[in-house]
Amino acid sequence: MPVCHRLPAALRRRPLALALAALCATPVYAAEPTTSSEEKVLGAVTVSEVADAGDNTERSGLYTARKSSSATGLKLSLRETPQTVSVISRSQLSDFRLDSVNDALAASSGINVERVETDRTYYTARGFDITNFQADGIGQPFAYGNVNGDIDTVLYERIEAVYGANGLMSGTGNPSATVNFLRKRPTSQFAAAASASIGSWGKQRVEGDISGSLVESGRIRGRLIAAHEDTDSYLDRYSREKTVFGAIVDVDLDDVSTLSIGHSEQRNKARSPMWGALPMLYSNGQQTNYDVSTSTASDWSYWNSSVRNTFVELNRELSADWRLRAVLTRNDYRNDGALFYAYGTPDATTGLGLLAYPSRYAMSNRQTQADVSASGRVKLFGRTHELAFGASSAESVLDDISHYGQGIGTALPSLDDWNGSYPMPSFDASVNGSHFVYKQKSAYAVARLSLADPLTLIAGAKLTRAQSNGTSYGVAHDSQADDVTPYAGIVYALTSQLSTYASYTDIFTPQYQTDLAGNTLAPVTGSNREIGLKGEFFARKLNASLALFRSEQRNLAEAAGYVGARPYHRAVDAQSEGVQIDIAGQVTPRLQLSIGYTQLAIDDDAGNAVRTYMPRRLLRSALTYRVPGIEGLKVGGSLHWQDDISRTTSGGEIRQKAYAVTNLMARYDFDRQWSVSANLNNVTNEKYLTSLYWDQSYYAAPRNLSVSLNWKY
């Protein structure tokens, strides 16, 4: 970047400045530091609300965080938070090479990653779609409730999931979960790291991370992060390349104010991606069974996507007890592709019956959001209480267009004989698209009241006004609604380590979907209740929770069919109830673990099971262990198990039986700077479908291996 060649002479004498100049001049990327229980990764972190030593998992090396503000806006321990909060720490991300957000969330205690295509993903939890995503607590809405591309985790220090409705801190209440991505932040002390990885199917990856003070006084600190990955795939013809860059600078304006400026970009290039997936049923109703490598993609198709994020953040200590935070964020999502979709129902004997559907697609989504919040403590009636206030204003503008290709409906050969060879058509058969603007304004207030030494009450409310105007593929995308969402939670400390809690919040989510007559559906309303038991053990290095939850939604949009090319929906009522267990952290100085188990039932208002494509029982576990006598060796494993899922269509039932996926890892530290690590995924070579969220699917990756050489300073 040109700015790298204009460093002032004073900065060129600083170690970080020299490292930044070297990084700009050569194609070297740094890696996420490897940690041991005895080592600190990046030295002292500047004291600020966003980089507290008590919850930074880079520094602690733990599989949990000691504090979180994702649920209420108040920085509380997980035991003091009256909702289930799971943490995927930087140590867990690094140990198991969870370089993709999809892989990271698939390791969480209760999130289902619905990989419907190679480059489009949905997420669900507790029976419902996850539509609330945040970066450092600031909402990042996705226009269609999904993620395009393979989002990398190199920029993040940890990922938190708050289960159940989170209407206080997210855009709207939703009883699934809110996912909060916590960015890595600049550090005071200089540190750098680099790694290079190779793996199955020609995977090559380099990444890097440099951080430290830019001036002698330490009042200006910076962090530069980059990664590049290029890989082929187990899927026929598919390959992917992604490049990630991120930079953050913190400036201490005075002793009580810090200004942060950050920018990140990720660019994805996918060749022969799947748009749609494999047909799951033959014409006789029998379920298909293809080779794991089977793909419907053509040899000319591609799908490029990018995301740019820029933010300016001001943190100021108003007094010893009060802090102010103001954030201005700009997100820019873009997609461009030439895609090939295969539709129809094949014959069980010949495999014939699939038809071609080519299309050119482009999308632009620009989001701007301003947030202001204040939090602090007050003394009243001889006790200390905590308060937080906030307001936000957001606007999202989406434009997309589809140019459909000539030859729609052309017969295709059997997928057993398909090699992707299909003439690239001219994309001028017809055109359609979307343009709509979504605006949302909100304000919230929450108080944590100390009623007695063992008893605290958290109460608050959020006022939300949402409006959407425009069209989406010929259908009005208009809606307008406002509501006040209350929140209440109570926590009772049974002992110094155990607490019991209960929480309640309303659900309010505006909808743009239309019914059979073309009328926009009313907003989703309902409630979310949770009670449970929480504990923190081993000097607060291990967190555990047991939760019973019940969620009710009314007017939830469910796809019901098409009127011509226009989809229409019906409003349904649904209830989800179950139990969730989450245990994560350090058991001994050698053993880290993370265990999550969810069991639930999802019924409609008549008591019939719905959303059967979601597992009713889900187990996630991971652990690592430092081997005694071989102090440099760490070994570990993870297990993902779910019970069977199904989807009933007009052509028959699609079923995925229960399955378990086991992964192994090992790392050896030669010294404090150099290490080598290896990860073996899907050890038993389990064959299973990635999702039944749609009535098409494809198979997950078979057994694969990666090896990394790591260095840190």
Give a brief rundown of this model.
With 713 residues, this protein is mainly beta.
Explain what the structure shows.
The structure is a single chain. This protein is mainly beta. The protein has a single domain, classed as Maltoporin, Chain A. The chain is built from five helices and 38 strands. The protein has a 22-stranded antiparallel beta barrel. A five-stranded mixed beta sheet has the order 3-10-11-7-8. A hairpin with a 4-residue loop joins β18 (302-317) and β19 (322-344). The longest helix is centred in the first third of the chain and has 11 residues, at 15-25. It is globular and about 80 Å long. The two termini are 24 Å apart. Mean pLDDT is 88; it is low at 1-53. GO terms for molecular function: siderophore uptake transmembrane transporter activity; signaling receptor activity. This is Outer membrane receptor for ferric coprogen and ferric-rhodotorulic acid. One of its GO terms (biological process) is siderophore transport.
Which CATH architecture is right? Beta Barrel
| Beta-strand segment tally | 38
Q: What distance lies between the first and last C-alpha atoms, to the nearest angstrom? A: 24 Å
Structural class of the helices, strands and pairings?
mainly beta
User: What is the typical, i.e. mean, pLDDT?
Assistant: 88
> Number of helix segments?
5
Radius of gyration: 25 Å
Tell me the major beta sheet.
Answer: 22 strands, antiparallel, barrel
Q: What's the shape?
A: globular
Helix fraction bin? under 10%
> The CATH topology, please?
Maltoporin, Chain A
Q: Under the CATH scheme, which class?
A: Mainly Beta
CATH homologous superfamily?
TonB-dependent receptor, beta-barrel domain
Subcellular location: Cell outer membrane
Keywords: Cell outer membrane, Ion transport, Iron, Iron transport, Membrane, Receptor, Signal, TonB box, Transmembrane, Transmembrane beta strand, Transport
Protein name: Outer membrane receptor for ferric coprogen and ferric-rhodotorulic acid
Membrane topology: Multi-pass membrane protein
